[in-house]
Amino acid sequence: MKLGVLTSLYASRPLEEVLDIAREAGLDCVEIGAGNFTGNAHIDVTGLLGSAKLRREYLNAFRSRGLEISALSCHGNPLHPRAEVAAASHRVFRRAVELAEKLEVAVVNLFSGCPGDSPRARYPNWVTCAWPLDFQEVVAWQWDKRVLPYWKREAAFAERHHVRLGFEMHPGFVVYNPATLLRLREACGDSVGANFDPSHLFWQGIDIETAIAELGRAGALYHVHAKDTGIDAANVTRNGVLDTTPMDRVARRSWVFRTVGFGHGDDEWKRIFTAFRRAGYEGAISIEHEDPLFTIDEGFRKSVAFLRTVMPSEPLAAK
């Protein structure tokens, strides 16, 4: 497996400085934000799409430091019920796929998005329960009228450009667990897979090793984010895990994102990496920092040190 980082956590620093940080930390790869929620601080998508010379120079900045690009990321909501929001996310997605092909980057990471509940909606509507029955009607309408028509077309677009789509299973969007990811993949084909981020699954009560095994059997593990979640047992006892408390009110929340190893310990993460190896995944493990209790530098350093102790560092010999 290859250890890397999503460079958006250092969005305030220039690319060369961030790549030097990655090299000095002994990383193998980096993931680059190409727009939407992930930002695009370290890439000029328009310039690179238009110039082979700029692409060579850009790639040389990575190769000269012994690094590769594990993925481009463009997390947005191309299914947003407001047309102007959806169109903006769609444009960023399409350009990220086109640029990934030109840079020979195999994966584009993204969200599935979430539509509203009707053609007249103004805001996304993420349904979390099956009753009253009109909720089921909303989900059926979303998938039949918005999700599948859009992603069937866009998955075919990605396939034509020799790019795989790593969908991050994220609550708030229609793909948020293995079942919904596999539903999309079954409908859209093998260009659809997972950017597997355990942090969004922990608080849903999903067993991470089981999820890895299920997606591994389907051949759907395309990229991995290294991020943890801390569960506050007392707050869960009072309020459950469906928590809309602002993320910065850490003491009041049922869960918060944590640096790897600070939500779940060595044993759990060793089981997670054993599950990845059993599933045949040998790709990128990309550190993502959203821990409100550590600075970016400290969270990054602790992530690298912890992951070095639990993830395989050498490839298995070919049989």
CATH level 3 topology: TIM Barrel
Q: How far is it from the N-terminal to the C-terminal residue, by CA?
A: 17 Å
Quick one: biggest sheet?
A: 8 strands, parallel, barrel
Spans of at least 5 consecutive residues whose pLDDT stays below 50 are: none
* SSE pattern, N- to C-terminal: EHEHHEHEHEHEHHEEHEHEH
Mean pLDDT level: 97
Tell me the domain tally. 1
Helix content: 40-55%
Query: Approximately what portion of the residues adopt beta-strand conformation?
Result: 5-15%
Question: At CATH's second level, what is the architecture?
Answer: Alpha-Beta Barrel
Number of strands: 10
The assigned structural class equals alpha/beta
What's this model, at a glance?
The protein is an alpha/beta fold. Helix content is 43%, strand content 15%.
Describe what this molecule looks like in 3D.
Strands 1-2-3-4-5-6-7-10 form an 8-stranded parallel beta barrel, surrounded by 6 helices. It has a single domain (2-310), classed as Divalent-metal-dependent TIM barrel enzymes (TIM Barrel, Alpha-Beta Barrel), CATH 3.20.20. The chain is built from 11 helices and 10 strands. It has helices spanning 15-24, 45-50, 52-63, 83-103, 134-160, 178-188, 199-202, 208-217, 233-239, 266-278, 296-310, and strands spanning 2-6, 29-33, 68-73, 107-110, 164-167, 192-196, 221-226, 228-231, 255-258, 284-287. By secondary structure, it is of the alpha/beta class. Helix content is 43%, strand content 15%. The longest helix has 27 residues, at 134-160.
